[in-house]
Design goal:
Blueprint: H1 66-78, H2 95-98, E1 108-113, H3 119-131, E2 137-142, H4 147-160, H5 173-188, H6 198-204, H7 209-216, E3 222-226, H8 234-247, E4 252-257, H9 272-290, E5 294-299, H10 302-306, H11 320-324, E6 327-333, H12 334-337, H13 340-345, H14 347-351, E7 356-364, E8 371-378, E9 383-384, E10 389-390, E11 394-395, E12 399-400
Parallel strand pairs: 1-5, 1-6, 2-3, 2-4, 4-5
Antiparallel strand pairs: 6-7, 7-8, 8-9, 8-10, 11-12
Helix pairs in contact: 3-4, 4-7, 6-7, 8-9
């Protein structure tokens, strides 16, 4: 399926050749007045020269002496550029604490788990949390959902306003559709003289108005793309990210949903393991060469889907997922991975855990690995309560998390 509405950013349909980088045009990403690109410009920028951090056109670093590295780092600190030292919060606590404070530039974070566990919900919510910051942009590239569907999910999320979680004002996707259709029907039947625009409907309805207002706070900093698993290649993703990084002063985080669907043209991988190796190495290269955080969803393999508890080695692909990632987080339903002894001891309490998801940091270059934390999922509102806690109960694998 051809990609849409991100004019010039993605390659054309399968019947056309993938364009060169120079043929791909980005929309105007000049930040609104007072927003974005607040970071002092780096020496030499990210353009085609060899200044700044010794990069050339977003590619590999050029050789530099340690003295040059120190001087460049010193210059950035003097200018007030501290992005290398201050992580960007995901908004999920205690996840931020376990991964060194949040997302960091040049790092690749992988999020894995079974279908329906909430990987897209968590990723889109974290992207929203990033974009809520007035100086940051989230670039969300989805192979699974259209931009309109993602917008609808965000409206449902904003209706309960995490982390406050006001379910009394919550709007489910079905409710949202009914509101829109009902209001337009009034217009068609002559009962309403309003133009019946989507924004007008959402703004006038007491259920959706607060959600629209909250979403509007970051709408200019959330960039959405419906990608194609046939033609949206690593090269195209890198080109789009590079141009967004240039336009926002480097203040962009890339989110991929999901990794295995990225096209690897013109490569001809031998099998899926080879394809995943190409993709994960390419995403790590994007993080390093463009100096941005990259967050990618990874699907589980068949063996993982059959297992009681999914681990990093259950993710579809190859060992490159482990080697190349800086942080790997695995999601499991808490009810399914509780120790049988615990379930038998208190089955009523165990049933309450069906709406809780355990996030396990299985790889962590920023600190300790194999840390379990839990967050409550509000699936009908496409949101997690970002105020989580360490898991206190015994989980399968005979691993006990101590307080």
């Amino acid at each position: 399926m051809a990609t849409r509405r991100f004019t010039g950013d993605l390659p054309p349909g399968p019947e056309q050749p993938v364009p060169d980088d120079d043929d791909m045009d980005m929309p105007d990403m000049t930040p609104p007045s007072g927003q974005g690109a607040q970071r002092p410009a780096k020496s030499g920028g990210r353009g085609g020269d060899s200044g700044g951090r010794g990069k050339r056109g977003g590619g590999a670093h050029l050789p530099r002496t340690l003295t040059q590295v120190l001087n460049e780092a010193n210059e950035r600190v003097v200018q007030g550029d501290l992005v290398d030292y201050v992580p960007m919060s995901t908004g999920f606590d205690p996840l931020d604490g376990f991964i060194g404070g949040g997302l960091r530039k040049t790092e690749l974070v992988l999020l894995g788990g079974a279908q329906g566990i909430g990987k897209t919900i968590a990723t889109l919510q974290i992207a929203r949390n990033v974009a809520m910051r007035p100086d940051q942009y989230a670039f969300y590239l989805s192979y699974e959902h259209t931009e309109t569907h993602l917008m609808h999910r965000l409206l449902c999320l904003e209706s309960i306003n995490p982390p406050e979680i006001d379910l009394s004002r919550g709007v489910k996707l079905r409710d949202l559709y009914q509101i829109i259709v009902a209001e337009r029907a009034k217009g068609f039947m002559g009962r309403d003289n309003s133009a019946g625009s989507l924004q007008g409907i959402l703004k006038d309805n007491p259920k959706t108005a607060p959600a629209l207002a909250r979403m509007s706070q970051y709408a200019d900093r959330m960039i959405l793309v419906k990608a194609s698993p046939a033609v949206t290649t690593l090269k195209a993703i890198k080109e789009m990210t590079m141009r967004l990084s240039d336009a926002t002063g480097g203040n962009v985080t890339l989110f991929i949903d999901y990794l295995q669907k990225i096209a690897v043209y013109p490569h001809n991988p031998r099998d899926e393991n080879d394809k995943v190796t190409i993709i994960v190495e390419g995403l790590k290269d994007i993080a390093l060469s463009l100096d941005v955080p990259v967050w990618a969803i990874v699907a589980a393999d068949r063996e993982g889907l059959k297992s009681k508890r999914i681990h990093l080695f259950h993710l579809r692909g190859s060992s490159a997922l482990d080697y190349e990632s800086d942080i790997a987080i695995i999601m499991n339903n808490k009810y399914h991975i509780l120790s049988k002894d615990h379930v038998a001891f208190n089955p009523y309490t165990a049933r309450q855990f069906r709406d809780w998801v355990v996030f396990t940091v299985e790889k962590n270059r920023a600190g300790r690995a194999m840390q379990d934390m839990e967050f409550q999922l509000y699936g009908q509102h496409f949101a997690f309560n970002p105020r989580g806690q360490k898991v206190q109960q015994q989980l399968i694998d005979d691993k006990v998390i101590e307080s």
